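Why does residue order matter? Because the sequence determines the fold. Keep that principle in mind as you read this record.
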Amino acid sequence: MTARPEPVRGAATTAGSPQVRAGLRTRLRAFAGTSLALALLVAMSAALAAAYPRAVDRYEDAGLRRAIEQASPERTTVQVDAPPPWTDTVAEMESALRVGPLAEVRAEVLATAKAPLVADPAQSSYGVRTTVALAASESWLPQPAGLPARLMLAAQQDLAAHSRISAGRLPRTSGRPVTAATELVEAAVTRDTARTLNIRVGSVIHVPGSERAPLAVRVTGIVVPRAPAGAYWSTQPVLRTPALGRLPGSAIADVHWIGGLLLAPDAGPALLGTPGRPHRYWQVAPDIAALNGRDLDRLASAVAAFESGPGVQRLRAVVESRLEAQTNLDGVLTDHAALRAGITPLLLVAAVGTASLAVIVLSMAGGVAADRRRAELTLLRARGASLPGLGMRLLAATAVVAVPAGALGLTAALLALPGARSAPAVAAALAVTLLACAALPLRAVVAHRTVRMHDGRADLASVRPSRRRTVAEVTVLVIASGAVLVLRRQGSGSTALVAAAPLLTGVVAALLLARLHPLPLRALSRAATRMRGPVVPLSLAQVARTPGFAVLPLLALLTALTTAAFGGSVLAGVTAARDRAALLAVGADGRIETPTGTLPRTLPDRVRGLPGLRDMTRAGITGEAKPEGGTQPVPLAGVDPDGYAELSHRTGLGQFDAASLRRRDTGTAAGTDRPLPALASPRVAEEYGTGPYAVLLPDGTSVSVRIVLVLTTTPAVPGGDFLIVDRAGLPRSAARTTTLLLSGDTLDGRALRAAVRGGTATSVRLRAEERARHVDSPLQSGAERLFGAAVAAGAGYAVLVLLLTVLRTAPERGALLARLRTMGMSRSQGRRLLILTALPQAFLATAGGLLTGWAGMHLLSPGVDLTTVALASSATDDAATLRTDPLSLALPALTVLLLAVAVPACQAWWVSRRGSVRELRMGDR
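Structure:
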């Protein structure tokens, strides 16, 4: 009598037993290659998932800090200002302007700045200063228009810590306290102030007094700022560098110098004796290193509270009811928030596209593992293993590999991208690890919920999808199509839809292609029955007998290809927009011009010999030409028609035929015969008509022009209105060369500037340098890098999807080829058979990827605006649109096709090399 076999106990009851642990070690050793592949996949996915939030944090932090650094401290510093208090005696007013009370109020002011608005105490200055510039009576001070220089007097604290002595010594007061009646005080000036206003150590400057004699200020030292660009010196830049100013209502030419005198720290009360309206001030400079992009909204709220909210109300109650706080930091934050709002939707495209690919690939990896162990799991279920026990056993076996790999990927991301939040990175890596651990158990539990030994056939060419699947697919198709239409209408403001754009288009295409795939296959199968030779009919029969085409691998491939196409198109659109904006700003590859006068006659010959120069076009441009009957000047450029027409064709800016611009009466004097043909901008042509009419030149001469062609752009005059004529028809004074337009891909800016050195107000602009100026924020460069990483990750995941798909059916293909080899099929026929077997689905994925990428770009381009990523906010009004990049569209698709063909070919070679015995073991199907 045979003993009855004992059912296998559930893994939930034996998970901690030595037998189970030994079984895990045995399985890991038996499937070492599979375990290593899973570990690499999880580690890579966890690293990517953890790196994304940290990279975004770093780019946003750097972008916010760069925005505040680029704005001057005049805009970003919170300036708290209060007049002297109303008191019964002058002594009480003087007391409020001394160092002790000022320092006490400073502590209150700095405490008012609430996080995330963190003050930088080292750069936050305070003291007493005049709010009205005082006219100096010294005639030796420079007077550009005969007007006396005016001076701002400030007793700013901590002068010694923020400057070094260049000459003399720092100012100080005598033993007696300074009062409003003090007649002489000491001051220091910066080196720039001394150089500009001819001030020396020992100079005495008198400023008017208020109901008293003028206040004498003796300069005792010249200082050099330690950090001239810092807030201490640049919040009130006149204390550091003199500037030209005008009195209200005066003529433009009536200018005078405004400079600053730095009094001793405790000399503030002396300003009460002047008509300068002295005020106490406390300047709160933000600590840029402590700012974080994720706190942008809270930072804006903190600035508003300080400037006009509870913060300033508390200071008024403590210090002075007339206290005021003002700053333009809120405007800087608003501009940066608009930049971030334009970039965020596009950044999410990279995140959602790559994340969806990672989810699909990890799910497919679990599916491949479940298919490979189908016979084993079926046997376990037949012997009585419970579903929970089976799931827990598989979960433990997967977790042993996935958890260390996920931790390794997280560690790599944390080390590679320091200085960012860790919590989002940990959460992302944990989600990847949990998905990797759960994919195999869930797939196995679903597949083996019913105990059975054999599955029915589900041939691709004959199976009909169930009604439930049809309803689900139609529902998903309608939702995805509606979302794409909404995105097309609403634009990039719909953040979630923009982020899901590649996935949505991939879902629509995958469902349609999976449904349409059997139709051509059936037609080919019928046609192949009349063909001679076994390879093609057998390959089609094998494709038809495979299980129904899985939507998940197809969705993964299409999403990967669409994400790569989208990312490549974004990068191509950004590059094209910057190139276009730079070309519009310069007009050529290089530009040498002088706004006044004429370029030296020898300059063209010196420039022509420089390396990298291919061609050069001369132009004479004046911005003060006035058409007859007009009040506004119009830039007029005299050019050589042939060379200028060639330049316009080469750059694509206002192309025209040289004959249309050439003067037709070369034998007569200019301005006395037929009008000159002219090219004009649309507004000039609309306002003045096509002519002919006279144009008055700056030197008093005039020329008659007739507009023959209206152009929106032209190389000589970047932007705005223009008139372009043949320089041979202009008077000699107007035909001078003021501009050289250079063509060449490798122009050397340093060599060009060295060639024009010595020219009066001559500037050199290069298209390459102008293009680089459009990347003025780390947010822009960060978005580009993330898109590049998304394209690379998408390509890598596409290869993984293809490999997983091939690995899933590799045993069946190997057994088929081995059987056919025993029947006499040659090696070349075997290779062709496997290649033709893989070709239909590979061709489907490639063609679907091309069509999906192309359709997605055309569908989504109206709703995606790349201007924020591509261009500086104030650089140009031209919009940067999404455009299809053929290389990004075709290269990944063709790579997928080549790999899909190469892998079966390699398998055929390997199987034929190993022989057929190992592929046809007893009991294999």
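DSSP finds 30 helices and 21 strands in the chain.
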